[in-house]
Amino acid sequence: MSGVRVYSFREGDRSEYLANYLLSGLGLVTPVPRPEDIGFDFYCQLADQEKGNLTFGYPFIVQVKSDSTKTILFGETKFEDWKRENVEWLFRLEIPIFFAFIEKSTMKMLIYNCSPFAYEFFAEKLPSVIEFRRRETVTDEEANKPIQEELPNWKENENGDGKKHIVDLGNPLISVTNEDIYNDTILKKKKNLLRNVIQIKQQNLIYKKLRLAYINWVLKIKTDESIVTAWAHFLGSDPSILGVMYNSLSHGLISLGMNLKHQNEIELLASLKPLLKKIPTEQIPPLIKTNYSDLFE
């Protein structure tokens, strides 16, 4: 309708304008055109330093929300409205995602990590709903592992697992104001915190792609100051998980075996051989089979 703009939409736009400016103080920012917005608003890279000729790295994406928003929902709580792609795209991301909440009254941006979401990589079935939940106040409590709630009136079919998975965002990782952007010491510290968590989340994405049942996540956050990390290994109930792991680790094990042979580490190589025999034969390149056949005997 010409000449009219819904107030809540306008306020959301203003939050994105401010986020664009504040994120630009951390590095490169590329806004996602509104017609192409499928769940995140900015593609970013951190500047490696604060002065001189700048270089950039550590890519990540950001979804922006107004400060009044307390939860971010992916999926539908009503069975008849549910669409798989609304949840599934979170599991297809190949770069880390963060959530930024904008306090327009104070011209401040709060950036939250969501690393506990990595637990969901090992869910037996696609969650019907993922809810990222902000804490009302900053606390000293550890970040919770995702919890599950049954969705009412959910039918048994392919519409996910019939549960809402609630992911604790913990405390804000960093805050960013206009004053921070012009204080090199403060800005460097905030970027280092963000950089460390980007690395953690990148590693989790690699483990996921390799189908290795291991993750790291941020257990505790002291906003703008420090993080405490934790780890988790997962045990699969399906015996076929061992075959998956042999397959995932195959090229690393082959490289290790080749180097142990090259370094004449006979005892270590002998210990490794029972694992090398478990590698699916189709994973072994023909040239390796010919030149290093003794590894698999």
Q: Which residues form runs of ≥5 with pLDDT under 50? A: none
Distance between the termini: 75 Å
Strand order of the largest sheet: 1-2-3-5-6-10
**Number of DSSP strand runs:** 12
Task: Write down the domain tally.
Answer: 2
- Secondary structure: helix percent: 25-40%
Q: What is the count of helical runs?
A: 7
Order of helices and strands: HEEEEHEEEEEEHHEEHHH
- Rounded to an integer in angstroms, the radius of gyration calculated over CA atoms is 23 Å
| Content-based structural category | alpha+beta
Q: Give the overall shape, derived from the CA principal axes.
A: globular
Concise structural overview:
It contains seven helices and twelve strands. The protein is α+β, with helices and mostly antiparallel strands.
Give a structural overview.
The chain is α+β, with helices and mostly antiparallel strands. It has two domains: 7-233, no CATH class; 241-296, no CATH class. It has helices spanning 7-24, 85-92, 178-181, 184-209, 241-262, 266-276, 286-291, and strands spanning 27-31, 42-47, 56-66, 71-75, 97-103, 108-112, 129-133, 147-150, 163-168, 174-177, 214-222, 226-233. A six-stranded mixed β-sheet has the order 1-2-3-5-6-10.
